[in-house]
Structures are given as structure tokens and as C-alpha cells.
Design brief:
The complex is a heterodimer of chains A (326) and B (338). By secondary structure, chain A is α/β, with parallel strands linked by helices. Chain A folds into two domains: 182 residues, 3-Layer(aba) Sandwich (Rossmann fold), CATH 3.40.50.970; 127 residues, 3-Layer(aba) Sandwich (Rossmann fold). Helices cover 37% and strands 20% of the residues of chain A. Chain A has twelve helices and 14 strands. In chain A, the strands form three sheets. A seven-stranded mixed sheet of chain A has the order 3-2-4-5-7-6-12, sandwiched between helices. In chain A, strands 9-11-10-13-14 form a five-stranded mixed sheet, sandwiched between helices. In chain A, strand 2, helix 2 and strand 3 form a beta-alpha-beta unit. The longest helix of chain A has 15 residues. Chain A is globular and about 60 Å long. Chain B is α/β, with parallel strands linked by helices and 338 residues long. Chain B has one domain: Thiamin diphosphate (ThDP)-binding fold, Pyr/PP domains (Rossmann fold, 3-Layer(aba) Sandwich), CATH 3.40.50.970. A six-stranded parallel sheet of chain B has the order 2-1-3-4-8-7, with helices on both faces. In chain B, helix 6 links the parallel strand 3 and strand 4. In chain B, helix 1 crosses helix 3. Chain B is globular and about 50 Å long. The chains are: A alpha/beta (326), B alpha/beta (338). Chains A and B meet through helix 3, helix 4 and helix 5 of A and strand 2, helix 5 and helix 6 of B.
Chain lengths: 326, 338
Amino acid sequence: MAEVTYRDALRSTLIEEMERDHAVVLMGEDIGVYQGTFRVTADLLQRFGPKRVIDTPISELGFIGAAVGMAMLGLRPVVEVMTWNFSLLAFDQIINNAAKIRYFSGGQVDLPVVIRGPNGAGVQLSAQHSQSLEATYAHFPGLLVAAPATPAEAKGLLRTAIRGNDPVVFLENAALYGMKGEVADGEFALPFGKAEVARPGTDVTVVAYSRMVHLALAAAGQLAGDGINAEVINLRTLRPLDTQTIIASVTKTHRAVVVQEQWKPFGAAAEIAARIYEEAFDELDAPVERVTGADVPMPYARNLELLAVPHEGDIVKAVKKTLYRT
Amino acid sequence: MQRIEDLTREELAAAVESYAKMVLARRFEEAAERAFRHGKIGGYLHVYSGQEAVAAGFLSVLRRDDIFFTAYRDHAHALLRGTPPGAVMAELYGKATGVAKGKGGSMHLFDASRGFYGGYGIVGGHIPLATGAAYTLRYLDTDRICLCFLGDGAMNSGSFHEPVNMAGLWGQDAMCPIVYIVENNQYAMGTSVSRSSAATNLASRFAAYAIEHERADGMDYFTVRRVASRVISQVRETGRPYALEVLTYRFAGHGAADLFQPYRNKEEVTQARTRDPITVLEDRLRAAGVLTDADVERIHSDAEQTVEGAVRFADESPEPAADELFKDVHGAWGTWPR
């Protein structure tokens, strides 16, 4: 066990996997000479050379598509998108190629390609650089979607992503890169599709992922002061989605709040709430509450931006609503 | 045009073989169009008739362990590479015995065992894949190469420019053994080259990415094969990309639904048909004395029989089992935790 940052957990996993398997290569904008925008790939060009740490032009479509082609031929590329906002330029490659080639070829190739980078709002990055695209990607069969909340999850899920045989949308979070946490030594890995009960509780289930897990835990702490014992579920991956853990929790608490940073319509929380209704309707003592970002393009002004993203207080309020308390 | 007396015995022998395959591809497309009209084939159907010399010229010199990618006009590429016609037709029919178990259809033929990595339906979308695949061949320290067939229309999409620029860069380190083959059949669906590309010498557009390029006559098999042979050797040797614009013509409509073809007139098609690549090759082989009337008759009747067999195979093959629906979405996880 060692205490490391989320960033270093990612970086050390890349190093370990590259040392273990020559098929692992890195690609992205300014990941080599520049050392990576968030320094996740710092020093890796020096360690592994330009054939394995490939600085690309600003061509998301080009290099993400190239990575898919590499994966088809047996490599295990890990592609960095400077932010997930830029992945929209490569949407066709991710959706029409990465997610579907295995299927339309009748299973003739594996597609072990990991696309990783920060997702979600930063600080005053405004409309084009603050999007949360998890539900967008989780919509498509053929993709896997991971959203680690801690350094240990960053390490464990990234290793599983790299060693798997499917395209993985790996959603990091800029606000978490500096976060420290305990990470197991050795070839520590976490399975996809297995949520964590981040805080056991009895009165209400709060479902979250990525940075929102920390808000949910803080809210649970605050609620404890009011005598409300919230259970917090950290999903870790959205596709596959561990409905079993969610349903087991709701069966115990009979109330649920789902938290997401993204816009409310057609989002992850809507999907999770629907699963709860489908599989545990009779267990519910209150409608499922959703805590989400405001349904607007992200504003620049700090005060407006703060109004547009969810906060601890919003979760507290939603939980109390499911308990019919104010 | 290549002078007949300059051709080697090997070239002539290979040409006779290619001729037979081109005839097969043409008969196959005709049968596919009939089957489409009879409702046996669904979705889209894009036939290759008129362009056979391009794929035949290149694939006849491609090494067994080399690889290639193409777009959706892909039946002939599979057949010329040696994929069994029955498996190709069965894929068009959506049958379990198809190359992709009936899950891909006409636009997504795929035969990885023969180095054919698909069959793609989004114009230009396969160019990045082929470029990354070419990098991989060098990364793995092999001397294998990759062919990337594309249409003239694909050159106007970002999915052309981004990877081709990267190929130019990677080629500087001998890391991109790829040949981009622009099959310029004059029309991007119904939009002619002059209406879609500001520069109509398409080969010249590769200069922007420091990629060596040339134009060739795509209706003459020998010309294509000679160029292909030289260029493939060069790319294998250097690890640098090379681009060819091959001038050809699509005799049929864009797809089976393109009945009226308002973008071109009948005279133009009739004129183009006077240089049918199959007839051009046949005439030259006859002139060289390596193809007789009897040979021609045998080749055509063999092709017809093969195609009939393929159609029968496709017709009689079972549909995919219902449980195939959820298979091949994800890969195996092996021993790693899930």
C-alpha cells in the first residue's frame, strides 16, 4: 500500500503495462515532448521512445481511428484525449468503428483500445470544454465505459481496461488528478461492472460515479448529523452497469437518489432510475430523485458556473425529499 | 499502355488467372443484382462492375501475409483475394454461412484470415484504420504492407486528410508501409469529381502530405499490375506511404437504388463500356497468344457455374440462429477480472 495521486496511479499503471507488454503503445496530442497536458504521461517518451509514445497532430479522428486499426492488428493502444470534449471530433471512429467492427465482422477481431482523458466540468472552462459525455458513450453497445473516482480505481480499472479486448471509454476527471489515496502494490486490478458500496447505510441509497462520489460521501456525512444514514454506491463503470448492487441497496433502503454532473435529460441518472423502477418498483417508498447539472451550455462566469453543477447541498436536499423531510 | 512484348511469361500466366477472377467478379455482381431485385438481398448493394482491373491488378501482386482495407463496394475485393464466393454471397443474403455470419452484409465483408480487414460503410471512415494498421505492421518488425482502397469521394472528408497527414509523418521514420489507392470512378454517388474536388488531379492532393503519388489507367489490368508491383515493392522496402489515383469507371449505378442516374448520360456510359477492363484484358491476352476461344468459353462457363453454386449455397444456407443476436458484441475477458 502506498499513498499516491490519481494522476500517478494512472501514470504508474501505464508504465507497468508498457513494461509488461510490448503491444501497449500510447498516442495523443502533446503526450510526449510536452509531457501531457495533465502530466499523466510525464517522462514516458524518455522511457519508452517515440515508437511507443506517439505525439500526434491535432487530429482526433485520425489518431483515434488509427488506434482502432492498431488494435485490430494486435496492439493495445491507450489513446489520450486532451479532454473528452475533443472526442466529439472522433465520434464516428469511436461509434461506427471501435464499437461495431467486432460485431459486423462476426467476431473476427479483438478491439483492445483504451481512450482516456478528463471528462466533465473544470473551473471556468465554459461551454465547449466542460461537458460530461458518459451517458452519450454508455448508450452504444460495443463500448465499455469506466469512471474511476479514486486513485485506487484509476489504477485498477485502467489495468483491466488495457488487458481487456474491447474498446474502453475511460473517463477521468481533472479535479481528481491531484487527489491522494491508498493504492495496493503489485498487479492490482478492479473488475468492470462491479460497483462499490462506498458508505454503508440504511435509510437511502445515493448512486454516483467519478467526482460525484465525493460529493455524495460529503452529503452523507452531513446527513448523518440529521440522523439520516445514507448508503453511497460508487458505480466505477457505467457500461457494464452493476444493477445488482444498486437493486440490493434499494431493496434495503427503499429510497434512491442518483447523482450526475451532466445535463438531466436522457442522462445516466435517468437510465439508473429507470432500472430501479423496472426491477425494484415495489420496494420504493418514494420516487427516485435525480441530482444533475443545469440544463444549459456551461457558462463562463464563476457564479453562474457554480449554479450549473451539482453540490453537496443539492444531494442533501434530494435525500430529504425522498424521506419527506425538509 | 504496357507493350505486350515487354510482358514476362509470369505476368502473362498471372494475367490469365486474374482474367478468370475478373470474369467471376462480374458474373457475381450480376447475380447479386438479380438477387437484390428478387428481394433475396436487403439493404444497400454497391457493385464493382467496370472497376475490376484495379482490385485485380493490386491483389494479384499482394503477398499472402499482407493486408488490405476498402469501403463498401467490396465484393470483388473479397473474391479476388480468394474468399469463397459462397461465403460472400451468403453474407449478402444475411445467412449464417456468410463471411461475417450474416451480421455485416454487403458493405461489411471481412476475412481476416486472408488479410482482408473490411468492408466499411461510412465514406472515408476506414482510412484511419488502415493507417494505424500499417503502423502496426512495422511496429511488429515485419515487412508486411497494407493497401487502402478508397473512392474519389472519400478524399473530401476529414477522415482522409487527418490520417494521410499522419502517414506522411510516420513515413519519415519508415513506420507507414501503406499504399492509398484512390479508385477514381468519376462519381461520389451522383457528384462528379469536378463538382466535388477543387483540384481534379486527385493524385496531386497527396503532395500536401509529402506522399509520393502518381496516376494510372485503371481500365488496363497490365498497367495497374505493373504499377502495383513496383509500388508495393517500394513501400515494403521503405516503410513510406505511396498514393495512386487509378482512373476507372463504374458501369452500374452507385447502388441498386440508383436507377435513373440523372448525373450522367447514357452516351457516357456506353462510351466507357467500350473500354471494359475485362474485354481490354481479354483482347490483349488473345493477342499475346495465351488465351484461346476455348479458354474464354471455359472461363466464362466456370464462372457461371461458380456463381450459380454460390447463389445456391446462399439460398440453401440457414439464417443466423436467434442467439447470434447477442454474440460478438464484446470479446472474451480471459483470466482478467471482470
